[in-house]
Batch of 3 targets.
Target 1
Amino acid sequence: QSALTQPASVSESPGQSITISCTGTRNDVGGYDFVSWYQQHPGKAPKLMIYEVTNRPSGVPDRFSGSKSGNTASLTISGLQADDEAYYYCSSWTSSSTPVAFGGGTKLTVL
Amino acid sequence: EVQLLESGGGLVQPGGSLRLSCAASGFTFSTYAMSWVRQAPGKGLEWVSGISGSYSSTYYADSVKGRFTISRDSSKNTLYLQMNSLRPEDAAVYFCAKGALTVAGGLDYWGQGTLLTVSS
């Protein structure tokens, strides 16, 4: 069982917006601003989309944004495109004996 | 251009050992933290181990602590993962990933992965 909780799947139509949540505790998401989001297409390596809660690496479209409130981090994708269909994983630094946790992943379907 | 190339995966019997390597290029290897992340077939990502840049502090997931050892050779720009006492549940694709200045930061570049199979 993953330390961080994500919905297993979400779906939305092209052009719309969607938000994926990542719920942890004060020992991880709530306690640190080291939350990252990754996109993974089947058979490919993950790609960093958001780091340190809100920051986008160079080359990531500004349609992708991150936020955090309390123990829950969120990834919002606006103007959904077909290529956004992928798995999305959150991760966080933690104070536990396993210092980096991943969420279980969310499958995004763009209808 | 940042490149990470993993090698060393393969088939190993339960209880056996294997060493993974990750050859890095395109950045100042000694400066950045590096991590290993694995993904079992059809499953999600699991962080395995990380090593800081400057002081080479090491970190491990509970699931591998005492069995796996991460190390880096900055003269060869190479990251390693020594895996001992392997179990069937260690079977996965192992990704090498470049981190920020600390292990806590995001992983901004990933290799394509190397497959470990643990079976008798």
Note: The radius of gyration of chain A is 13 Å.
Target 2
Amino acid sequence: GEDVEQSLFLSVREGDSSVINCTYTDSSSTYLYWYKQEPGAGLQLLTYIFSNMDMKQDQRLTVLLNKKDKHLSLRIADTQTGDSAIYFCAETSDTGRRALTFGSGTRLQVQP
Amino acid sequence: DAGITQSPRHKVTETGTPVTLRCHQTENHRYMYWYRQDPGHGLRLIHYSYGVKDTDKGEVSDGYSVSRSKTEDFLLTLESATSSQTSVYFCAITTSKNTEAFFGQGTRLTVV
């Protein structure tokens, strides 16, 4: 079945850039997502990218997609303490049940 | 949040009792999903619905049933709660073009 993998933890200093990586196995993935979850809260959709795109930029967020290697990354520029959270990568296709398959999440810790 | 409301937000129940969680949406989305979130597993799909009275199983459906008698409501029932079902449960919808997936705030269920 589909699988999505992420590293568990990333620590950066405030003001630096953060790069969170994700790999997936489903070659029919159509949309790839990044969600943010703060403690005790739900999942906030940060951004998504369509599989025929290589890059998407949205303010401080840059998503890069290497479809050949099935590798997705999220770059957060000028990381702030408020960016400390768990970040989930997810993928889905636009056929069938359209459910998202999630990675296990990357905990981002931003040190002042 | 795409008008998604989950109830209750917190519940403690005893082993062996039935429990029903409710997901209500206000925007007439066709696809609705129930996920559970456990440490180290990300979110895993329990059941999903692609229309009124149309439901199907996800990867972790054992011990759960669902019903969707109206477009706006998707109910998740634990037929006889077990301690392994202690988790945070999230309801989600996908938009009609499947470009975005939004989540409710979650229900924290503890089975004692």
Note: The two ends of chain B are 31 Å apart (CA to CA).
Target 3
Amino acid sequence: QQQVKQSPQSLIVQKGGISIINCAYENTAFDYFPWYQQFPGKGPALLIAIRPDVSEKKEGRFTISFNKSAKQFSLHIMDSQPGDSATYFCAASLGYQKVTFGTGTKLQVIP
Amino acid sequence: DTGVSQDPRHKITKRGQNVTFRCDPISEHNRLYWYRQTLGQGPEFLTYFQNEAQLEKSRLLSDRFSAERPKGSFSTLEIQRTEQGDSAMYLCASSLAAGLGSYNEQFFGPGTRLTVL
């Protein structure tokens, strides 16, 4: 059972544009929603995370928007740069337990 | 380097052989997790430890898989009688349990890529 659905599967954005990745979850008990960035040959690295009692969190060019009633959350990358080209995973977890990952979005930022 | 380390980074083996992977977590972290990632997919949870106790195992972890964390520090993941379907990236992560209400910020290692011929 896939508990975190992610879209799109791939995304091509012009340099300077906005990249938007969407996720939806099923388990309302999840209480922590991290986003991970993964480069080829590397393990995932935590990018930004949000708790469900917060509707938006911004760190630099990265913003998470969270809609608890719709059970949806999204990542916005402002002023996208070629160095942002990577695979992004949304995820969810319950407290200290295992992280459930989405299927990933491969982002390509073209000059 | 204070991050999570994994060894080996790559392993090629023949079907039916046994393989063992090692993970060294961030030193003060008491929780250690193993995940498996296949091409084009997100990591899937396999098992996790708090200190030396193995607290949860996924249904993905068949009887051919065993994980240990004998002294609550490094961990090993062994796969017996490997099958071609075991080919994947095996990721280790660690975190620090900071008490009730804490959140699970997991730090991942670079992974061990297993290829079963």
Note: Chain A touches chain B through 26 residues (CB under 8 Å).
